[in-house]
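User: Hey, my collaborator sent me this sequence without any context and asked if I could get a structure. I don't really work with proteins. Can you help?
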Amino acid sequence: MNEIRIDAVYQASSEPTVGRMCHIDPALASVPLTTTVDAFDVVLAFPKFEGQLPAEGYVSWWGDGSAPVALGPARFTAHTVFTLTSDLDDDVVRTELKAAITAIRFAAARLSDALRVEQPSVGMVGEIPKMLSLTVRDITQGLELPAPEPLNPGYPMVVGLPALTVDTATRALRDGVSPARALLAQARYLTQSTNSPQPGMAILLAAVAAETYAKESLKSCRPPGSTPSLRTLQQEHGTAVDLYGPIAKAVISRSLEADDPALWSDLGALFNARNRMAHKLKTPTHLDARQLVVAGMRAMDWLSSGLPK
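Assistant: No problem. I've predicted the 3D structure and written it out in structure-token form, which is a compact way to encode the shape of the chain:
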């Protein structure tokens, strides 16, 4: 068995600029924070503060230099220690190392969220903080191991998207773009095409887009005075995902639940993730957000294909 330690250093604020740095209570500078993510115990800490300024790792502070009331850290660290039972060259080890790094990223995002809720000027809630360094070490043998992932995940090139046509451009100039489609496009950008992904914000945007699009589309299919009204159907069924299920069945005689059960389940997961993000600040992982945003897009496309021409 080998004991493995993974250490990561994160940039504390989105912008490393004095005046845009986060600030913490000096007491937090000497209190490591521990959280459990899946099977990993992750320890997070800001640079240790010995009570004297200037101090390594801090670029600004508030209050008297001899007794500051707040400190501006440039970074924070996160690490986890766990045991591997497989040989170091086994594929299982690579999978376990990647899982541990994912746990560290998740914990770091949570700590960043706490900062950004208190101090919105230092970044957006849900944004994954920038990793400055990553080391993997076999403590048992005293060996440094290659990290199975880059510091900050790259993003594949996106190909095959539709080209802008004359009709689409003309319609946008005349009427503007569809608000729901615009929100969905923003969500896809935040999970697919940026070096600063924001999975929490992407989930919120995608869920709002899918819900709004369904309400507007189904409402357009109900002549004035129709019984039951769309409002009545919503009151009867209650949840956002039902717009694509029993409510769609009543309005356009089609149900995503019947047509594509797997997509129906993923769409429900999107709305559940939105509720956890909105009510409990449960930030999804980047991978989960990317998959759920695509589910929202596919559900909207399914509904569009069933609307009267």
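In plain terms: Residues 26 and 241 are 46 Å apart (CA to CA). You can pass these tokens on to your collaborator as they are.
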